[in-house]
Amino acid sequence: MVTIKDISQRCGVSPATVSKALNGYGDIGAATAERIRKVAQEMHYMPNSAARQLKTNISHNIGVVFEDDTMSGLTHEYFSQILNSAKNELERHGYDITFIGSKIGGTSFVEHCRYRKCDGVLIASVDFTSQQVIDLINSEFPTVTIDYSFNNHSCVMSDNVDGAYNLVHYLYQMGHRKIAYIHGEETSVTVKRLSGFYKACKELGLHIPDEYVVLGQFHDPKSAGECTRELMRLNNPPTAIMYPDDFAYIGGRIALEKMNLSTPEDVSVVGYDGIHLSQVIRPRVTTWYQDAEQIGAISARKLVETIENKKSSIAEQIMVEGRLIEGETVRRIN
């Protein structure tokens, strides 16, 4: 393993000078510091993590809590984009990531974080109301949550109220008055999207029958397919269906095909998330784009700030705006 002493011998400077250059101290010349860093890179120098932790009390290890009941896991594009963006941002700041679970030896999230000596935790897809998550939030670890807020803790959120609200307005502008909504399970995201849905309907004077609002599941094509069949078998079926997400819509699409119904000729549909898949299938899905890369990067930066500036960092809710992607799945009707 290459040491600071090895680099100092190669550069012809003292170990102290090498240490200052690698740690960004400003009391050595810029040219000397740049030469030392270049040599360190050429020699594939890696700082000793144990020594670095003793010096800074920071392990440079971030825990990530990510659990998905549908078992789609990191194959789900929206979450994989968030986590990949967060990973890239954390690596830019010199941090590694460790996935935190409760299925390893029966340990809790808090116990796993302590075992891994995490500096902080990014909490993404999980049951935020579970006691394990609440215990983690109340522990000594700095946390940033995605799409769920706790008092006095930072979170990064997509504007879910605005997303559902704008989708209803778009469908209305396209002539639709019989709008159904297949929503995800009871989570804070669902509550906000339903709020946006009903807010828009009230503003537009739309009466939505109870049977038009159906409980489905996020990221679950099978559930979306069942809900689609239920809606289209009504005596007065909707002319447009809003799905909980683009991935779930695939199940709705299959169900419609089996019922010999075409999109958008027989029924219009909109998705949510704006994943790449939604824009390569035909017809292209009209959907609400969530900026997953921004959500991931911002959450990572906020967590690093919270770790490295504990006294000055302020807990805040950061909202990331989305936008409409107009595809080919909504027909204009009179």
Oligomeric state as shown: single chain
CATH classification class of the largest domain: Alpha Beta
Distance between the termini: 73 Å
Biggest sheet: strand arrangement:
2-1-3-4-5-11
Q: And the CATH topology of the largest domain?
A: Rossmann fold
Strand content: 5-15%
Any low-confidence stretches, pLDDT <50, length ≥5? none
The tally of structural domains comes to: 3
Instruction: Compute the number of helices.
Output: 13
Percentage of residues in helical conformation: 40-55%
N-to-C order of helices and strands: HHHHEHEHEHEEHEHEHEHEHEHEE
The gross shape turns out to be elongated
What's the main sheet like? 6 strands, parallel
Mean of residue pLDDT values? 91
CATH architecture of the largest domain: 3-Layer(aba) Sandwich
CATH superfamily of the largest domain: Response regulator
Number of strand elements: 12
Alpha-beta classification = alpha/beta
Gyration radius, in Å: 25 Å
GO molecular function: DNA-binding transcription factor activity; transcription cis-regulatory region binding
Pfam families: LacI (PF00356), Peripla_BP_1 (PF00532)
InterPro entries: HTH_LacI, Lambda_DNA-bd_dom_sf, Peripla_BP/Lac1_sug-bd_dom, Peripla_BP_I
Protein name: Transcriptional regulator
